[in-house]
Amino acid sequence: FSGAIYCFLDSCLKPYSFANPSIADSGLRFHYVAAGERGKPLMLLLHGFPEFWYSWRHQLREFKSEYRVVALDLRGYGETDAPSHKEDYKLDCLITDIKDILESLGYNKCVLIGHDWGGMIAWLVAICYPEMVTKLIVVNFPHPSVFTEYILRHPSQLIKSGYYFFFQMPWFPEFMFTVNDFKVLKSLFTSQATGIGRKGCRLTAEDIEAYLYVFSQPGALTGPINHYRNIFSCLPLQHHEVIMPTLLLWGERDAFMEVEMAEITRIYVKNHFRLTILSEASHWLQQDQPDIVNKLIWTFLKEETTRKRE
């Protein structure tokens, strides 16, 4: 089974390189997949939950012509090291990871792209280390301050984010994901309620098997869920403003995030801000509508960086 998965991944990604750089400060090894020549501008991709670098496969292929594209496995995910203590997944650790990885790759700045939980981390990196982010692109996650303020005022979003609170329990969330041959994991991507719709680029059987292989490894769910077990460690934020050009892409059929938060995010971006909402797209936007997403990213990247907020 595992051999079949890696054979499939290898056949799709032969032009790409795989690496596990060691980050000196944390001592952790981070796995990533890279495409494009070294020395080109860096595009760093941060995945969401429950995903891994593979969720960016369409973007790895698309942007390698002009960028060194690096899709990371976040701390605790996939082949990246997974510390055993819950406290090792605090948001400040996750933010510092991105800074250290950037430096270990030999860069001092990048185009930073994040989806879902990776979007949360991308916002925070942009706020804490603005000199390292030339342009920020976030997919289906609002500015963190918008999220925390909105969820307190809108019970409907509180219900949609109920899994944040469920994940605070020890061991039981991990168990629930494994029940019935990982039915919950599969349904997140494929069900009518939360998955990619009929008009989207649905995951193939091989795609689903890749996800199942990664998350069926012993202990593979604990690290990812530990991210959520520390979400309250640095929220609300002391600093809010985002000063680089920012693109926010949003699938309106997102079952987990209400679209109203996308427009409110504009308040916190003190530079050019572009919001594009795709009406037929799901939460899994860069996999759901890869051609449209890639086109929107290209357009944003080629815009003049000196443009001010619209």
TrEMBL record:
UniProt KW keywords: Hydrolase
Record-annotated AB hydrolase-1 domain positions: 41-286
One Pfam short name: Abhydrolase_1
Single GO term (MF): epoxide hydrolase activity
Statement: the UniProt record of this protein carries the keyword Hydrolase: yes
Secretion signal span: none
Biological classification of the source: Eukaryota, Metazoa, Chordata, Craniata, Vertebrata
Name of this chain's protein: Epoxide hydrolase 4
Family label: Belongs to the AB hydrolase superfamily. Epoxide hydrolase family.
InterPro entries (UniProt xref): AB_hydrolase_1, AB_hydrolase_fold, Epox_hydrolase-like
Keyword Hydrolase recorded: yes
